[in-house]
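Hypothesis: this fold can be encoded by more than one sequence.
Test: take the C-alpha cells below, design a sequence, compare later.
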C-alpha cells in the first residue's frame, strides 16, 4: 500500500515536472519573424485609385501585402474549410493530422494526408523547410508552435494569406486577386473565392493559364463547390486571368524603384486615355509620311502634378525603341526656347510687346542667322516676331542681353548645359543645346505660374518643394500675351499661348501650349535621330497638339486663359500701331498694348511727323514763307536701316517727299550721323590694296553723306551705303557730313 502511494507520488511529481518543463519550453520558444523581412510589391495606382502596375519584389515575386480585414470574409471561410477547419482550436499542430502524417511517412500506415494546418504551412513557407521527411515534419511542427506561442490566430492567418502560393511567381491573396482577377481581395465573389482557395494545395498544377482553361483548376473548383454544398451551377465557373496590368508604362517607370506598398500617383486616367488615343490616331493618320513615333506630357502648372504622360507610340514596339521615354530624352528644342529670350528682354527693359525689332540680314561675328523660310519680313513688333518665330529678332535680343544671360538663365532653370557659355553662343536661341520635354514643361509652367518654376510631381503624398523664382510676374504674363498673338491652330480656342520648334535637320518637331493652369507639350520624331522632312513644328507636332486640346477640353480640362493676377504691375494702353511708341496726334492707327510701368522702354512716337508740302509740286518745304499754297501731310520718318529692311521685305512705307529744289533748309539741327565702320578709336589692319569700307547711319530725312579724311573729300554715299577708302598707314581723322550740315567724326589708326 505504501509502495503504491510512493509510486503515485513519483508519477505525479514526474508529470508535474514534465508539465513544468513543457510550460517552460513553451515560454522559452524563440520569437520567429512573421512578415518583417518579407519584401512586397509596389502597387501603383492613378489619382482615382485605378490600378496601373503591380511591381516585382526583390526576389522576383508578385506579392501584395493585405490586412486580414482587406480580404473578402467569404474567401477566409472557404480557405479555412479547404485547408484547416480546426484552425481556431488547435495549438498550431492538429494531433490527429500529425499522427496520420507520421504513420504515412514511417510506413506504418497508408500514405497520404499531412499535418496541413495553416500554422504549419506558414512555417514551411517562412522557413523553406523540406517537409517530406520525418525530421522535416518535426521542424515544421516546432516552427508552427513558435508562431502560435508569439502571435494571435489572426496574425498567423494574415501572414499565410500574404505568402500562400497562387501559381507561378504570384504569392498571397492580394497579388492573386489583382493579377488573376483584376480586382482587390476585398471584392472577390463567392465563385472567385472557391477558385482561388484550391490553388495553394497544388499551385504548379492549378495555377491559372492565360488564354486557356486549366482542367485541374476547374476540377478542384467543382469538387470544393460540391463539398460546400453550394448551387451546382456555380461549379462551371472557370478562372481566366486578365492581362497583367501595365498602364501608362513610361509614367510608372519614371517613378523609380521605390519601396513596396500602395503608391498613389497624380496620373489622371481620363486625361491619360485622351492623350494615348490622340497620339495613336495622329500616327495612324500620318503613317504614309513615315511618322511613327511621338511623345506627350500634360502637367498642372501650379502643383507640378503630371496628369498624363506618353513616352512613345508603343512601349512594346522594339522597332521604334518604344521603351525609350521621349519625355525624358534629350533632344534639340529648335525655337521652343525663344519665348524666354523675350521674357528676359521684357524683364530687363529692352522691349515691350510693341517694340519694333529688325528681321533683316544680320551678321554677328562669323554667324549669319537665317529664318526658317529663308526670307526676311523687315521690321516687326516684338509680339509679332515671337508669334511668327522669326530667328533674327530673337538672336538680336539674345545678343543685346549679353553672352551669358540666356545660358545662365537656363542653368538656373535646371537645364543641363555642361559646356562653357561661349560654346553655345547665340545659337542657343535656335536650339543649340539639348533639353528634355520635362525641362521644357517646367519652363513653360513658370510662365503659367507668374515666373515661379515648380518641380514635376508624380506622387500625390510627396510634399511640394519650394518654387524657384525665374522671372517677374509681369514679364511672364506679357510673354504669354505675346504668344497668344499666334493665330490659333485648328481646334484651339482663341487665347491659347503656344509655341512650336523644329530642330536643325528635321529631326525633332515640338509644340508646347499653356492651357489655363496646364502645360501640354508634344514631340514628334525618331529616337535614333533619323530625319524626316515631315518633322516640322507646326506641321506635325502642332497638328497633334491641335487634335489633343479639344479632346482634353471635352474630357473636362479647363483650357481658358487666366486673367492677370491681382496686383500685377502692367498697364494696357493705346500705342501707335506702326512704331509701338506712345501715340501723338499724327498717329492715325493705334492698337492696345501692354507694358510694365517703370521698366518698359515706352517713348513718344517719332516716326509719324507732319510736314509742309507744296500743293503744286507735291514736294516738301521746311516752313511757310507765304509764297506758295501749302498743305499739311503726315509721313513716316524711319531710320535708313529700317527703311532698307522694309524695302528688302517688299513692305511699302509712307516716306516723306524730297525737299523742293531751292528751298531753304535748317542745318545743324537734329541728330547728326553716326559712323558705324570703322569704329571710333579703332585700329584697322589693311591688307594689300583691299579698301576699308565706310558706313554711317543718318536721320530719316537725310539723302546723302559726304565723307572726308583729314579734310580731304573722299566721296558721297547714301546712309548705310558703303564707300571704299584706301588710306595710307597712320592716324586719320574721318568726318561724315549729312546733307543738312550735321557732322560725325572718328579717329582711326591704319596699319
Amino acid at each position: 500500500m505504501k509502495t503504491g502511494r510512493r509510486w503515485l507520488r513519483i508519477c505525479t511529481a514526474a508529470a508535474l515536472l514534465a508539465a513544468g518543463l513543457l510550460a517552460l519550453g513553451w515560454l522559452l520558444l524563440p520569437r520567429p519573424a512573421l512578415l518583417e523581412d518579407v519584401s512586397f510589391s509596389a502597387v501603383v495606382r492613378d489619382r482615382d485609385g485605378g490600378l496601373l502596375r503591380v511591381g516585382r519584389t526583390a526576389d522576383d515575386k508578385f506579392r501584395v501585402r493585405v490586412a486580414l480585414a482587406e480580404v473578402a470574409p467569404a474567401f477566409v471561410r472557404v480557405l479555412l474549410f479547404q485547408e484547416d477547419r480546426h484552425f481556431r482550436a488547435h495549438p498550431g499542430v492538429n494531433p490527429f493530422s500529425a499522427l496520420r502524417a507520421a504513420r504515412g511517412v514511417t510506413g506504418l500506415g497508408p500514405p497520404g494526408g499531412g499535418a496541413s494546418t495553416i500554422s504549419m504551412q506558414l512555417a514551411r513557407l517562412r522557413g523553406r523547410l523540406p517537409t517530406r521527411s520525418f525530421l522535416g515534419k518535426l521542424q515544421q511542427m516546432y516552427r508552427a508552435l513558435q508562431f502560435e506561442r508569439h502571435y494571435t490566430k489572426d496574425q498567423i492567418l494574415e501572414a499565410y494569406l500574404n505568402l500562400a502560393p497562387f501559381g507561378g511567381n504570384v504569392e498571397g491573396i492580394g497579388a492573386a486577386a489583382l493579377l488573376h482577377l483584376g480586382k482587390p481581395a476585398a471584392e472577390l465573389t463567392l465563385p472567385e473565392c472557391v477558385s482561388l482557395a484550391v490553388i495553394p494545395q497544388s499551385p504548379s498544377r492549378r495555377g491559372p493559364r492565360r488564354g486557356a482553361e486549366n482542367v485541374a483548376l476547374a476540377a478542384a473548383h467543382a469538387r470544393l463547390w460540391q463539398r460546400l454544398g453550394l448551387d451546382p451551377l456555380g461549379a462551371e465557373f472557370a478562372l481566366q486571368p486578365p492581362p497583367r496590368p501595365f498602364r501608362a508604362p513610361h509614367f510608372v517607370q519614371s517613378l523609380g524603384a521605390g519601396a513596396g506598398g500602395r503608391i498613389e500617383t497624380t496620373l489622371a486616367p481620363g486625361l491619360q486615355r485622351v492623350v494615348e488615343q490622340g497620339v495613336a490616331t495622329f500616327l495612324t493618320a500620318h503613317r504614309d509620311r513615315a511618322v511613327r513615333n511621338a511623345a506627350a506630357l500634360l502637367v498642372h502648372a501650379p502643383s507640378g502634378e503630371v496628369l498624363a504622360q506618353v513616352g512613345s507610340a508603343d512601349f512594346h514596339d522594339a522597332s521604334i525603341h518604344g521603351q525609350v521615354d521621349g519625355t525624358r530624352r534629350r533632344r534639340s528644342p529648335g525655337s521652343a526656347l525663344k519665348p524666354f529670350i523675350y521674357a528676359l528682354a521684357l524683364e530687363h527693359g529692352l522691349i515691350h510687346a510693341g517694340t519694333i525689332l529688325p528681321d533683316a540680314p544680320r551678321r554677328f561675328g562669323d554667324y549669319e542667322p537665317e529664318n526658317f523660310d529663308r526670307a526676311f519680313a523687315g521690321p516687326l513688333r516684338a509680339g509679332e516676331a515671337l508669334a511668327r518665330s522669326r530667328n533674327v529678332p530673337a538672336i538680336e535680343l539674345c545678343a543685346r542681353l549679353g553672352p551669358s544671360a540666356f545660358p545662365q538663365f537656363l542653368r538656373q532653370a535646371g537645364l543641363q548645359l555642361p559646356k562653357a557659355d561661349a560654346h553655345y553662343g547665340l545659337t542657343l536661341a535656335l536650339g543649340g543645346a539639348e533639353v528634355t520635354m520635362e525641362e521644357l514643361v517646367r519652363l513653360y509652367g513658370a510662365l503659367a505660374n507668374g515666373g515661379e518654376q515648380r518641380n514635376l510631381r508624380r506622387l500625390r503624398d510627396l510634399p511640394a518643394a519650394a518654387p524657384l523664382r525665374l522671372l517677374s510676374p509681369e514679364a511672364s504674363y506679357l510673354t504669354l500675351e505675346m504668344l497668344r498673338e499666334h493665330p490659333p491652330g485648328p481646334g484651339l480656342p482663341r487665347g491659347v499661348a503656344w509655341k512650336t520648334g523644329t530642330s536643325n535637320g528635321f529631326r525633332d518637331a515640338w509644340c508646347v501650349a499653356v492651357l489655363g493652369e496646364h502645360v501640354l507639350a508634344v514631340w514628334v520624331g525618331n529616337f535614333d535621330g533619323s530625319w524626316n522632312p515631315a518633322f516640322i513644328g507646326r506641321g506635325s507636332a502642332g497638328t497633334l497638339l491641335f487634335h489633343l486640346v479639344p479632346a482634353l477640353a471635352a474630357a473636362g480640362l479647363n483650357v481658358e486663359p487666366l486673367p492677370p493676377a491681382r496686383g500685377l504691375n502692367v498697364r494696357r494702353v493705346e500705342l501707335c500701331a506702326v512704331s509701338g511708341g506712345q501715340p501723338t496726334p499724327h498717329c492715325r492707327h493705334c492698337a492696345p498694348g501692354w507694358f510694365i510701368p517703370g521698366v518698359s522702354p515706352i517713348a513718344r512716337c517719332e516716326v509719324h511727323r507732319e510736314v509742309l508740302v507744296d500743293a503744286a509740286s507735291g514736294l516738301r518745304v521746311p516752313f511757310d514763307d507765304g509764297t506758295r499754297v501749302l498743305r499739311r501731310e503726315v509721313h513716316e520718318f524711319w531710320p535708313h536701316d529700317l527703311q532698307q529692311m522694309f524695302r528688302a521685305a517688299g513692305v511699302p512705307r509712307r516716306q516723306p517727299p524730297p525737299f523742293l529744289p531751292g528751298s531753304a533748309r535748317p542745318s545743324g539741327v537734329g541728330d547728326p550721323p553716326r559712323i558705324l565702320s570703322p569704329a571710333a578709336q579703332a585700329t584697322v589692319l589693311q591688307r594689300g590694296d583691299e579698301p576699308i569700307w565706310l558706313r554711317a547711319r543718318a536721320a530719316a530725312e537725310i539723302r546723302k553723306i559726304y565723307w572726308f579724311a583729314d579734310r580731304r573729300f573722299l566721296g558721297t554715299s547714301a546712309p548705310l551705303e558703303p564707300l571704299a577708302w584706301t588710306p595710307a598707314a597712320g592716324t586719320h581723322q574721318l568726318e561724315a557730313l549729312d546733307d543738312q550740315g550735321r557732322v560725325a567724326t572718328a579717329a582711326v589708326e591704319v596699319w
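The mean pLDDT is 86. Residues 2-28 form the longest helix (27 residues).
Hypothesis status: open.
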